[in-house]
Amino acid sequence: MCRGQIATDVIRDQFWVMYQDPAMDLFITDSKYRKQVEPLLGLPGQNDNLIETKENWDKYKDKRNSYLSLRGQHYQHAPLNWTSTKAIWNGDGNNTNAFLTVFRHFDNASVVRGMVGQVPQTIWWMDFPLFERTYYELVVNFDLFGNVAHQLQTRLYFDLIRNGAEHNFLRLLPRDKRKSVLDDWYQGMGVVKTYFTYAPLDLDIKTAEKFSTDDTKSELLNRILQQFKQVNADADDSINRCQNQSCFRNPQSTWVQTADSVLSQLTRTTFEQKSGLNYLPELTFIRVKNGMKERFIRLSEIVTTAMWLFFLESH
């Protein structure tokens, strides 16, 4: 249903999605808690009166933020391992939908199985309320032919869902590291949006994960890549996440491996190192020829900022 710049600028250009284990989700395991928070989880867009758009938006925004406050209070009493990698759904050991990668292509988006590409800037960790609201907001309740008020409220509320999934992932990091990671995600006008629209960052719930480096985000994601390798459809990305000298796929012919090695070097090249990359489109195809054979390789890596503001995106 999401097509067009305004519809897709609510998401980032590449991010990973993972899910909270249902057995460690209070909304599923605690019926009293579920009954208490359900009234706060309604979705906007049903009232499409244009004049009342701001009033409706403020009402649902405040309900959502009240829900997060209540959620935080209850999760403080949950077992400690509910904020650890043990609380990440493992796809029951065989479901490769457990980890997904979303790519935005300016005015449309695609989803593939597995943690694909380089380690992204942000990660979504979705519990059941986040997943359910995403489905009903963007599929069941969305009116493709609805008026501006309906579509605007849908777009604005999904901004809160994205933010909620990002905040949930941050709970796996040490409390003293979360703010610096969030500041890296929300810069410029994003700081203003964080202050006036989003719920405060959860700095109360302690993570059960232990860390040995200062780069806790990278350490955590490398741990997740190893721990859930069995259900990661793209577990061995030797081009984008090369950890040794053999930056190519196996088994492949020599000429393909040579091309892989060159491309692996390119993936580690930043815009600052090669200013000419700024002039490439966000989607580029490279054709590699070898006699009678050829391969087409797609490059796509443009980091867009200001997804929280209409028409004010920058690369």
How would you describe what is shown here?
InterPro entries: Fatty_acid_cis-trans_isomerase. This is Fatty acid cis/trans isomerase (CTI). One of its GO terms (molecular function) is isomerase activity. The protein is of the alpha+beta class. The protein folds into two domains: about 5-230, no CATH class; about 235-315, no CATH class. It is built from ten helices and six strands, in the order H-E-H-H-H-E-E-E-H-H-H-H-H-H-E-E. The strands form two sheets. It has a four-stranded mixed sheet. Strands 5-6 form a two-stranded antiparallel sheet. Strand 2 (about 100-105) and strand 3 (about 110-115) form a beta hairpin. Helix 4 packs parallel to helix 6 (about 150-170) and helix 5 (about 130-140) packs antiparallel against helix 6. The longest helix is centred in the first third of the chain and has 23 residues, at about 55-75. The chain is globular and about 65 Å long. The relative contact order is 0.15.
What characteristics describe this protein?
alpha+beta; 2 domains; globular; Fatty acid cis/trans isomerase (CTI); isomerase activity; isomerase
| Count of extended strands | 6
* Number of structural domains: 2
Strand order, sheet with most strands: 3-2-1-4
| Helix count from the secondary structure assignment | 10
Unreliable segments of 5+ consecutive residues: 305-312
Largest sheet features: 4 strands, mixed
Structural classification:
alpha+beta
In angstroms, what separates the terminal alpha carbons? 25 Å
Keywords: Isomerase
Organism: Methylophaga sulfidovorans
GO molecular function, one term: isomerase activity
InterPro entries: Fatty_acid_cis-trans_isomerase (IPR010706)
